[in-house]
Structure formats: C-alpha cells, structure tokens
Amino acid sequence: MNPIDNAALSATLSHVRIVMVNTTLPANIGSALRAMKTMGLSKLVLVAPKTYPHPDIDALAAGATDLIEQIEIVETLEQAIQDCHLVFGTSARSRTIPWPLLDARPAAQKSMQAVTQQNQEVAIVFGREDRGLTNEELALANYHVTIPVNTEYGVLNVAQAIQVICYEMRMAAMELAEVQSDQSATMQVIDGQSMHWDEPLVTHQDMDKFYPHLETMLAEIEFMDPNNKRLLPLRLRRLFGRIQLDKMEYHLLRGIFSRVQAMRHGTWTPSGKSTTDHEDQS
Amino acid sequence: MNPIDNAALSATLSHVRIVMVNTTLPANIGSALRAMKTMGLSKLVLVAPKTYPHPDIDALAAGATDLIEQIEIVETLEQAIQDCHLVFGTSARSRTIPWPLLDARPAAQKSMQAVTQQNQEVAIVFGREDRGLTNEELALANYHVTIPVNTEYGVLNVAQAIQVICYEMRMAAMELAEVQSDQSATMQVIDGQSMHWDEPLVTHQDMDKFYPHLETMLAEIEFMDPNNKRLLPLRLRRLFGRIQLDKMEYHLLRGIFSRVQAMRHGTWTPSGKSTTDHEDQS
Q1: CA separation for the pair A202, A220 (Å, rounded)
Q2: Is pLDDT larger for residue B192 or for residue A222?
Q3: Nearest one of B3, B37, B13, B11 to B171, comparing CA atoms
Q4: Which partner from A32, A270, B165, B172 sits 20 to 30 angstroms from A236, CA to CA?
C-alpha cells in the first residue's frame, strides 16, 4: 500500500458535502463536524437549522474550527443542492415508491467515482432527528442511501449515521487512490464500469426546469391529469433521477417535449406530405 | 438481495465481543452499547471500569437494556479474552515493535471468517480514553486493528471507533451470508451494484421493441429524419441503456410514445374543450 496522501484525499473529499436539514440539537452539528474532519471531509451545509450558532457546536467540534467557519447556511434543501450533480437522501424507511437505494458502501464508491472521474459535486442529505426527511425532500435525490443495521432494534442517530457515511467516503477515496496509483493506464474500470463521458452532466438546477416541462407536456397531451397526477411525477423523477442526464441528452429530451407541445398547440405542423401519409382529421 | 435475517446475523455476531479497558466516562459505555445493539453485537466486557454502574450508561444505551444485563465485568484483560481465539487490539499509534496491523475492514472480514468457518471467539479490545492500550496489553493481541483517518487531525474517540468497528463487523457478516445464500434468486445488479427494487427490470428483448417504437415516433413528429438519423439512435440507446428501465417505467414511456403517435395520426384528439384552449389548425 502506498503511503496515504492526506492532502490529496481531502481535495477529493471536498467535493462531497454533508447537508443537514432542520437540525434541532447543536451537539449533532458539532459531532458531524468532528466526524467529517476526522475522515477528511470539509463542507457542511445547514438547511434552516433550529439552533445556530450555539456553544455546543464548538464544544463537540473540538479542533474542527476551520470547518465551522466554512459552514454554509441556507433556507431550503433546493438551495443546498442546486449545484450538485449527484444527491443522496438518507432514509431508513421504505416509501410508497421505492427509490434507487444503495447501501452506504456502494453509495460512497459511486460518489468517489463521480468526483474523480467526472468532476461531479456530491451531496449526502440527512434529515431531522425525529422524523428524517420528508417524501418531498427524498424525491429531490438521485438515490437513497441506507446504512445496514439491526432493524429489530432501530436506526442510528444522525451523528452516528454521518460518522459511518464519512468513514465510507474516506475508504472509497482511499481505494480509488490505490487503484489510480497502481494502474499506469488512464482507463479505469471499477465494478465493471468505465465511465469516460464526453458531455458534462446536468446539475440539480437544470433538472428543476426539466420536470415541470415534462409534466406540462404530459398534461397537454392528456397523458396526465394535472388535477390528479397520482404517482406519475414521482415515477418520472425516480426514472430520470437515476439516469443522470448529460447536457446534450437534456436538450435533446426537452426538444422532443417542445416539439410535441407545438404539435398539440398547432404551432408546428408536419411538413408537406404528412397529410397524405396518414388519414389526418384536418 | 435476500431479506436480511437479523436473527442469523446476531447469532454470528454474538461470537464477537467488545472489550473496553479502564473506561473513565460512563457515557462512552452507553454509546458503545447503542452502537453494538444497532449493528447486532451483544457481548460487552468491561475490564476494571472506573465508574460502574452509572445512570449515564443506561441513558445513552436507550433500548439496549438487554445488553446492559449481559455486561461482564472482569479485573484484567487476560480474563476478558481467555476463551478467545482471535484478539484484536485497537491502536492508532505505531509501537516500538510493529505488530501485524489490519485496517478495520479486513479485520472484520477475518473475524467473520474465523467465526463462521472455525467457530472461533473474537475480541476487539479498546483502550482508555486518554492513552489507549499499553504496550503490554497490545502484546496480548493477535493483530492490531486501526481505522483509517485523517492523521493530520487526530483519532476517533472510543465511542466513534466502536461504532465503526461494529459497523464493519455487520457488513462483513452480511457479505458472508450473501455469499453463502443462493445468489441467483432476486438479486439485481444495477451499475455493477446491488440494489433493491420493487418492479422487475426489463430484458434486452423488451428494449428491442422500445427503441424502434421511440425512433418511429420521433420520425413521425419529424424530430428525426429517418433517412439521416445521425447520432440520435445511438444517443437514445446510451441514455436509456444506462438507466435499466423497470417494467412499469417501460410501459409508461411506451404509453407516452403511443399517445404522441395517436395525436400525430389524428386517431386521438384532445378532450372536449381542447379546440377552445388553443388555436388549433383544424
């Protein structure tokens, strides 16, 4: 094994942010910072924390004061993840629609591949102490991540969960660093995947325009009742969330939606011979 | 993935004991019990604890009272490990005489193999909050075990270290259980990783009908020139190929394609008020 390059690992891990939503106990924020620092992560985003700042945060984050100074406070989860490509929501419960679900270890491996091979920004989102993340918040994630536990006893508290996730992130980063240093070739094949992508991937912010466009189109062609959407929007988010579109695919699909809309509105009509091709009503 | 058999995992993990030497803070004992119980471990041995019993133990071990009742108190480390086959001493520092040193993950894998294949009893020994284990105590171990951390910052406290070790023990036990169980069953591999899903995934054969349908639709709405398709079919295959659609998503998308086609052919028209909604050409 090569000697560990802490600086290189920290640089990689700086692209993974921990997001805590509506945290009540300052001690949990302090413990999170300590867990992060120990494992080499540095970016904590707090979404509408209940109590901030608070001396307990500093007390429990002993020695991680540089991370306290870098904390980012935002009002909504959307703000916390808008420039992220890959978002994981932590969830212990199974939901109405199961989301693509990864255990902590493969989730960390996927994150580190996304960072090192595609320069992506990754967010791991943790919910409230008492009730976790809402279904709406979980639907903003590409994947859900869970830590395997003894389900007969219960779940980890948020500080313990952050500890395990940060540990797995560091382990995955170390594994990748070893693979990179051991292989002279530039091509990396990990878990049977080789991901060299020609186009930049879309961010969460891009997808905030994609889903409304898709839904509007589906409503206009009466595939979806806008007053009774049922599970359709959730299914579409789950589908395109796990695909991670690149920019070209994104524009391609939105182009198709627009074409369908234009046809529906009559602002686009088929070219020349179309009416002879089919028995149109016109 | 097979449903997790908590009872079987707990039976395996009951052969791994956590040993805490000269612990000062009762809160750390409570946290250790909680971490153990969450991961399915049950046996805690305390070597000459400084403060025991104490209400903080019960408070922090909330819900793990059965483990409190099973705690064993002994005077010396030798007593704690006398019936063990495999003993790991936790150590952050390098010692005068280098010992066989394993990271937490391979240590857990080795432990689980020892338990399941050779019916061994395993101990993981944790030292004092302030100065860990003595050289004499470390010399009683077969191996030393360490948790990879950002060495520039410092080490985990004992409760965090027990959390990570117990987590790795459970992961290793689960891996072994999966290897042993029938792998062909309902295990799905997506992105080279195992994932839990509610719907069966489509086969390659299904997709052989999907792409022609999509291309026909795109040709009919003149988004793609059938005589000059360029890279579009390839891009669509790459896009939907990496998503691995499930059956419901597959039918959902093909339903959308059919609706668009029907609109194009005039075999479907928008309901009642549509012509007043938009200035249709008809």
Answers
A1: 26
A2: A222
A3: B13
A4: A270
Residue among A156, A259, A282 minimizing CB distance to B282:
A282
CA distance B64 to B27: 14
Q: Do A150 and B37 touch (CB under 8 A)?
A: yes
> In which element (H, E) is residue B157 found?
none
Residue B207: Cβ-neighbour burial (10 angstroms; 0-12, 13-18, 19+): middle
Cα dihedral angle (B88, B92, B95, B101), rounded to 10 degrees?
40
Dist CA B109 CA A218 (whole Å): 51
The pLDDT value recorded for residue B3 is 59
Q: How much of chain A is in helix, strand and coil states, percent to nearest 5? A: 50, 15, 40
Q: Which of A46, A30, A36, A48 is nearest to A9 (CA)?
A: A36
Average pLDDT for chain A: 86
Looking at residue A101, what is its pLDDT? Answer: 87
Cβ of A150 and B10 within 8 Å? yes
**Nearest 5 degrees, angle CA A157-CA A159-CA A160?**
65
Across-strand partners of A146? A103
Q: CA A158, CA A127: separation in Å to the nearest integer?
A: 8
| pLDDT at residue number B63 | 84
CA distance A75 to B197: 33
- To the nearest 10°, the Cα dihedral for B210, B211, B217, B221? 150
The two tokens of residue A59 are: 């007390």
Contact call for residues B246 and B200 (beta carbons, < 8 A): yes
Enumerate the residues of chain A whose CB falls inside 8 A of the CB of residue B243: 239, 242-243
CA distance B223 to chain A (A): 7
User: Which stretch of A71-80, A196-205, B22-31, B182-191 has the lowest confidence by average pLDDT?
Assistant: B182-191
Interchain proximity A256–B151, CB inside 8 Å: no
- Helix B247-265, helix A232-243: angle, nearest 10: 110
Q: Which residue in B149, B182, B229 sits closest to B1, CA to CA?
A: B182
User: pLDDT means per 10 residues in chain B (282 residues)?
Assistant: 76 97 96 95 97 92 91 96 91 68 93 90 95 89 90 85 97 87 40 57 83 96 92 85 84 96 92 46 36
ipTM (interface pTM): 0.77
Give the ranges where A148-231 is alpha helix by DSSP (H): 158-182, 204-220
Three-class secondary structure of residue A263 per DSSP: helix
Report CA Rg, chain B. Answer: 30
Q: Is B277 helix (H, G, I), strand (E, B) or coil?
A: helix
Coil vs helix vs strand at B119: coil
Bridge partners (DSSP) of residue A276 are: none
- For residues A256 and A214, the answer to whether their CB atoms sit within 8 Å is no
- Residue whose structure tokens are 């944790």: B126
> Does B193 contact A106 at a Cβ distance shorter than 8 Å?
yes
